[in-house]
Design a protein that fits this description.
Blueprint lengths: L4 E4 L5 E6 L11 H12 L27 E9 L14 H13 L10 H8 L6 E10 L4 H5 L2 E2 L5 E2 L4 H15 L31 E6 L13 H4 L14 H8 L4 E4 L9 E2 L2 E2 L5 E4 L2 E3 L1 E6 L4 H11 L33 H7 L5 E3 L9 E6 L9 H9 L2 E2 L1 E5 L3 E6 L9 E3 L7 E9 L10 E10 L5 E7 L4 E4 L24 E2 L44 E3 L7 E9 L8 E11 L2 E6 L10 E4 L2 E3 L2 E6 L1 E8 L17 E5 L4 E5 L6 E8 L9 H4 L6 E3 L16 E2 L8 E2 L4 H18 L11 H4 L14 E2 L2 E5 H7 L4 H4 L1 E6 L1 E6 L2 E7 L1 H5 L3
Parallel strand pairs: 3-4, 3-7, 7-13, 14-17, 15-16, 33-41, 40-41
Antiparallel strand pairs: 1-2, 2-15, 5-6, 8-13, 9-10, 11-12, 17-32, 18-31, 19-27, 19-30, 20-26, 20-29, 21-24, 21-25, 21-27, 22-23, 22-26, 27-28, 32-35, 33-34, 35-36, 37-38, 39-40, 42-43
Length: 835
């Protein structure tokens, strides 16, 4: 059981008495491993905390001196059918656009708040300097829908955009043509992977350091939730669902989703740096300079979101959950970014970037005291002069504390190998390209007779995004090959483009690529697969269970030669699945066995070259770190980036008992924020709806987990406040009718017609709205006109028109399903944000 006892002793400097967890002293065979892990954690050696089975996420320190700042390239792009709205019709639009973004995003003096330059200088305590250069727009050859329309390939999950990588490649080609004199070298000053192994990170590595593209029009993220598209483009729907969408929904689907990703092409190529090829793939811009990572934003994006997205450029993950909401709320810029001014980074993010040294608290069994005092200053206090900073630390004042917990055990369960005791396992994690390579001598194989490579395989891989490939090299280049029975690889293409061959993805046993393994015991093929928040509290469907299969590959074209065969497990930067486990591999020609390996009896099979793969009995027990991070936050401190957290928008709701419209506004109090980091999960695994309640990579502790009381809904409340188990139960027929009426009254008061539900007619809504305009259009608070949040971000560009309005939201929601009445509910995301 984990316990963290905090006693608040004084203010404004916060003194905490931390009762460290009491545990038995380490002993037995785990003694050395536990002690070493705790020592690495105490000294912030995060790169040393991993293991061969699961990739450990960590970052190199990110620093840039003022004399050689990192420089971001900003490329503005318009589509063949859609141009920029700002300065529309102005003959000097291109120049004015570039100047507007240059002013809003960068500041050469690091003094202008809410620019990327000022924000990252402040968060890094003066150790990271960022500038940028905005280029005039280029015009793409295709329509927005050609790049942006959501699609789902056979054997894969839905993708928000059809061809964003093609957009990036075309835009960079146009930029290079239009700017022959551009100082490209100034955009390559960072070697984050230390390609040459010299320990110097602030040097060129042949790749653009930071690239962001700003496209004309709005983004899909600004309308996806409005139309509930996550309910329509779900794992049970194919491409035909697009034909059923309302024109407004289809316009939303055609937009690009703001995101960060990579140009996943030419993986065996790269720039030549100091006489060596830096092989990471991407696209060549000019000799010696390639592009790989990129960010993409719409012209409706606030500078605060640019700040969030740049966090990805230096390696930070999203802290929010991807398929639901994990209650990290607004306490981290990499979570729900506040607008128009970004909030602070958490202490955890700063520690990962090397910008903050916390006070480390160890358990008694590992050298710490039973009760230890920690004095916290405000996390974002202004940068001190070096002597002052040293004096404060010497006096015991810290911006954050890391409370290390004794290592925990993580069980990684795969599948029992069908032959013998063990097989060969790919490992799991983000950013993988792990290989198991075997040199095969086929020189004595008879010409003209089939040669087959086969093995038992079990896999569970992110469908359509991550793949396990079988590749052969007879000369200098690797050649991807497919199974003889194409049903084992139902995806249309691999991760690196529509004209490439696929690999294993999704579930082994799913032979039609619909996301269900119809051969799994207990699977009902007609069953709808739960996704997102619907998965919470439900048992996993039997159709989502992988089963062992035995695919075969034709090696006949390589008869008479010596070749290298490898199995390569590729994963992108998001979502982690177990990977692939193989067993009983054979190469045969007729009845003749040319090679066989059952992977028994050896810790590392001698015939193989393993990079990331490991022998596996189908289950692994690992030691992983976990810890708390404590920080003091004050949304009302003068000049704090957290000020926006103290000025949250109104949440409107119809009080069903009083019969009137009401609004809820929450103002968080200053105090200690506690985060719990769990090393059993990858950074991208931060979704309790998937992992289970309270389970994720980085979650905020909730000091008051009771549900927020909503006036008028007392009869639907369940549980006891004293037991911290309160919740709402709205399933009863009478409650559904009450919520339907409350939803209608709220929507009619808050939303203008263009933003009302498109999948609810007047009958389903309970009657048409009596007025054509929203009631809140007549309301002004603190000098700002109130407007529905989705209308604010879709109708008004960042700037004066948006700044004189305040976006609001609602506390009621609904869900629809084919041939079923709407289910009326509370807006879970809005309520969870309050925890």
């Amino acid at each position: 059981m984990r316990r963290l006892a905090l006693s608040l002793l004084s203010s404004p400097l916060i003194a905490l008495a931390v009762a460290a967890p009491a545990v038995a002293a380490p002993g037995g065979g785990l003694d050395h491993a536990r002690a070493r892990l705790m020592d690495d954690l105490a000294h912030l050696r995060f790169e040393a905390l991993g293991n061969p089975v699961t990739r450990w996420d960590h970052l190199p320190p990110v620093h840039a001196p003022e004399a050689e700042p990192h420089k971001q390239l900003v490329v503005l792009v318009r589509f063949s059918d859609l141009g920029f709205e700002r300065y529309q019709g102005d003959q000097a639009q291109d120049q004015k656009l570039a100047a507007w973004y240059q002013d809003k995003l960068f500041d050469p003096r690091y003094e202008k708040p809410n620019t990327l330059s000022h924000y990252y200088h402040r968060q890094s305590l003066g150790t990271y300097h960022l500038q940028g250069h905005v280029l005039p727009p280029v015009t793409l050859s295709k329509t927005r829908a050609d790049y942006g329309r959501s699609y789902r390939q056979m054997g894969g999950d839905w993708r928000n955009d059809k061809d964003p990588e093609g957009l990036v490649e075309e835009a960079l080609t146009l930029v290079a043509q239009a700017n022959p004199g551009l100082d490209w070298a100034s955009f390559d000053r960072w070697d984050p992977q230390d390609f040459d192994g010299d320990g110097i990170l602030n040097e060129p590595d042949g790749y653009l350091d930071h690239l962001v593209l700003v496209y004309a029009g709005n983004g899909q993220s600004s309308c996806h939730g409005l139309y509930g598209l996550q309910r329509k483009l779900d794992p049970n729907a194919d491409m035909d669902v697009l034909k059923t969408l309302d024109p407004r929904e289809l316009e939303c689907v055609d937009r690009l989703w703001p995101h960060r990703f990579k140009i996943q092409k030419r993986e065996d190529q790269g720039p030549v740096v100091e006489g060596r090829m830096h092989v990471r793939g991407g696209m060549q811009i000019r000799p010696g300079l390639w592009s790989l990572d990129y960010n993409m934003q719409s012209e409706y994006t606030e500078p605060s979101t640019f700040i969030h997205e740049f966090g990805h450029s230096i390696g930070l993950p999203d802290i929010y959950a991807r398929t639901s909401n994990n209650s990290t709320g607004g306490w981290e810029v990499m979570s729900a970014t506040s607008s128009p001014v970004a909030q602070n980074m958490s202490a955890w993010s700063r520690i990962q970037l090397g910008w903050l040294n916390p006070r480390v608290v160890l358990p008694p069994a590992f050298g710490g005291q039973k009760v230890q005092s920690v004095y916290l200053r405000r996390l974002d206090e202004a940068l001190d002069a070096v002597p002052t900073a040293h004096r404060k630390r010497a006096a015991g004042l810290h911006r954050a504390a890391l409370v290390a917990l004794p290592p925990k055990r993580q069980q990684v369960k795969l599948a029992t190998p069908p032959q013998g005791q063990q097989g060969l396992y790919s490992g799991q994690g983000n950013h993988l390209s792990q290989t198991a390579a075997l040199r095969l001598d086929l020189s004595k194989a008879q010409q003209g007779q089939p040669i087959a490579l086969s093995f038992d395989a079990w896999w569970q891989i992110e469908a359509g995004w991550d793949f396990a490939y079988v590749e052969v090299r007879a000369g200098d280049a690797w050649e991807r090959i497919q199974t003889s029975d194409k049903r084992f690889m139902p995806a249309k293409h691999g991760h690196d483009g529509k004209h490439t061959l696929p690999g294993f993805t999704g579930l082994s046993g799913d032979l039609d690529g619909d996301g269900k393994n119809e051969s799994a015991q207990g699977c009902d093929p007609s069953e709808k697969i739960a996704h997102g928040e619907d998965k919470a509290g439900q048992k996993e469907s039997p159709c989502k269970a992988a089963t062992w299969v035995r695919p075969s590959f034709d090696l006949s074209p390589y008869a008479g030669r010596t070749v290298t065969v490898r199995i390569r497990y590729f994963t992108d930067m998001a979502a982690v699945e177990p990977g692939i486990l193989i067993d009983d591999l054979k190469v045969t020609q007729g009845d003749t066995v040319l090679f066989a390996d059952d992977f028994e009896g050896e810790r590392r099979p001698r015939a193989w070259q393993l990079d990331g793969w490991t022998p596996s009995a189908g289950e692994h027990t690992l030691l992983v770190p976990h810890y708390y991070v404590l920080e003091f936050r004050d949304p009302y401190a003068e000049g704090s980036y957290d000020n926006g957290l103290g000025d949250q928008g109104y949440r409107f709701f119809w009080d069903v008992k009083l019969g009137r419209l009401r609004a809820l506004r929450v103002r968080p109090r200053p105090g200690v924020l506690a985060w719990y980091f769990d090393g059993a999960y990858a950074w991208s695994e931060n979704d309790p709806a998937t992992n289970g309640p309270g389970r994720g990579s980085l979650l905020a502790l909730d000091a008051w987990p009771n549900e927020t009381p909503i006036p008028g809904l007392e009869d639907m409340a369940r549980g006891q406040f004293e037991a911290f188990d309160t919740h709402y139960d709205v399933k009863a027929e009478a409650d559904q009718k009450t919520l339907q009426a409350a939803f209608r009254e709220t929507v009619c008061a808050v939303r203008n017609p263009d933003y009302r539900p498109v999948d609810l007619d007047a009958e389903a809504l309970g009657g048409a709205c009596p007025q054509d305009t929203a009631f809140i259009d007549t309301l002004t608070v603190d000098g700002k006109q109130l407007v529905f949040g989705y209308e604010l971000v879709n109708r008004f560009l960042p700037g004066p028109e948006r700044e004189k309005r305040d976006g609001v939201s609602e506390l009621y929601d609904y869900k629809t399903a084919p041939k079923k009445p709407a289910f009326w509910r509370l807006r879970d995301r809005s309520l969870r944000y309050l925890h």
